């Protein structure tokens, strides 16, 4: 497959492992940390990821979430694009159920105008927050029949239509009889070169990507089992498009790398504890490794943490390389996107640096 001809920013394989690697940064907030400091750490990591040879650096959208200081991907990407020079930057993702497709197209059109050929637009359907946050985000939104949406009418079932509308705006491709074409509703500046990725840990995103001929980012780091099913659905139902003649799968995975296996496990535990608390309705900042080690887990909680850690590739550099290589073989991924929930910024950067060195990544010219 010749990946260099795709508009999705897909290039040749890089590194000793033959697996292109990218970064999904969540702008992690540890206990007692400062949001401004977390954002500066994201900027520093983006620069380092470029030096180390990662292909992409994506940022997330989370609202009113104590563990992340990244509620506005387009704003953050504008800053990162000014700092970096070659690495592709994108959203992992913009939660399209929270935003009018026209606004998203305009934001990424501006980003693309300043930084042509470097911007990815990943879109998902999870609202990125609790129900009360959804209501605050969507207040005043209206459905197609003109009724007020309350807190929940713009649900995941509307996602495929929203993606189609987004593509229509980005590519200026609405049919002549479409209301937006008749009324000359356009994105300024136009952004036909911005690739759109559908994200998902389940089948809705996969089906949308397959039907519209888009690359698919499978959120293995959120739900490993469902992500594997979604990949199968995507490949088996993919319809070629002008921009994406063949299916392309990027798998996001939680990876924690350290000089020793014990250190890696210690740094992986805080993410497991945070996710356990979230499942219990107790959102919190990312706890420290010390707090995660000393937490008084019940047997049920230990079972959850153990299961969650089974989905994390963690260990020494050679162990992480083996784990990532195995994941690529199991999923047939064309690319892997690494994310990590290490509370300490220095250890987080070291994890990515060790993986880059182990895979012999080479920075873009």
TrEMBL record:
Which segments constitute the Luciferase-like domain? Answer: 23-328
Pfam families per UniProt: Bac_luciferase (PF00296)
Looking up CDD domains in the UniProt record yields:
Flavin_utilizing_monoxygenases (cd00347)
Q: Which GO molecular function entries does the Swiss-Prot or TrEMBL record give?
A: oxidoreductase activity, acting on paired donors, with incorporation or reduction of molecular oxygen
**SUPFAM superfamilies given for it?**
Bacterial luciferase-like (SSF51679)
Q: Name one GO cellular component term.
A: cytosol
Q: So which domain of life are we looking at?
A: Bacteria
Q: Which PANTHER family match?
A: LUCIFERASE-LIKE MONOOXYGENASE
Q: Belongs to which family?
A: To bacterial alkanal monooxygenase alpha and beta chains.
NCBIfam families (UniProt xref): oxido_grp_1
Q: What is this protein called?
A: Luciferase family oxidoreductase, group 1
UniProt source species: Actinacidiphila rubida
């Amino acid at each position: 497959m010749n990946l260099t001809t795709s508009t999705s920013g897909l290039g040749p394989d890089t590194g000793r492992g033959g697996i292109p690697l990218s970064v999904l940064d969540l702008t992690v907030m540890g206990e007692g940390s400062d949001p401004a400091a977390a954002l500066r750490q994201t900027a520093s990591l983006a620069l380092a990821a470029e030096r180390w040879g990662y292909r992409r650096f994506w940022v997330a959208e989370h609202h009113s979430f104590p563990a992340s200081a990244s509620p506005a991907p387009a704003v953050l990407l504008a800053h990162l694009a000014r700092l970096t020079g070659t690495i592709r930057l994108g959203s992992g993702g913009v939660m399209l159920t929270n935003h009018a497709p026209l606004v998203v197209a305009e934001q990424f059109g501006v980003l693309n105008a300043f930084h042509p050929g470097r911007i990815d637009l990943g879109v998902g359907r999870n609202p990125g927050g609790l129900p009360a946050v959804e209501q605050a985000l969507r207040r005043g939104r209206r459905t197609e029949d003109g009724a007020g949406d309350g807190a929940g009418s713009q649900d995941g079932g509307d996602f495929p239509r929203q993606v189609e509308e987004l593509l229509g705006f980005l590519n200026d491709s609405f049919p002549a009889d479409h209301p937006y074409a008749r009324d000359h509703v356009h994105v300024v500046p136009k952004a036909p070169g911005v690739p759109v990725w559908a994200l998902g840990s389940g089948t809705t995103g996969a089906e949308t990507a397959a039907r519209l001929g888009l690359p698919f980012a499978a959120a293995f780091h959120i739900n490993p089992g469902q992500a594997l099913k979604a990949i199968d659905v995507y490949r088996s139902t993919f319809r070629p498009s002008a921009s994406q003649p063949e299916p392309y799968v990027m798998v996001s995975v939680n990876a924690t790398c350290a000089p020793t296996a014990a250190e890696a496990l210690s740094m992986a535990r805080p993410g497991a504890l945070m996710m356990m608390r979230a499942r219990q309705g107790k959102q919190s900042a990312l706890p420290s490794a010390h707090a995660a080690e000393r937490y008084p887990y019940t047997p049920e909680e230990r079972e959850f943490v153990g299961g969650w850690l089974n989905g994390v590739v963690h260990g020494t550099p050679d162990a992480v390389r083996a784990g990532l290589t195995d994941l690529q073989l199991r999923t047939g991924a064309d690319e892997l996107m690494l994310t990590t929930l290490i509370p300490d910024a220095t250890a987080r950067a070291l994890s990515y640096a060790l993986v880059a060195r182990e895979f012999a990544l080479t920075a873009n010219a």
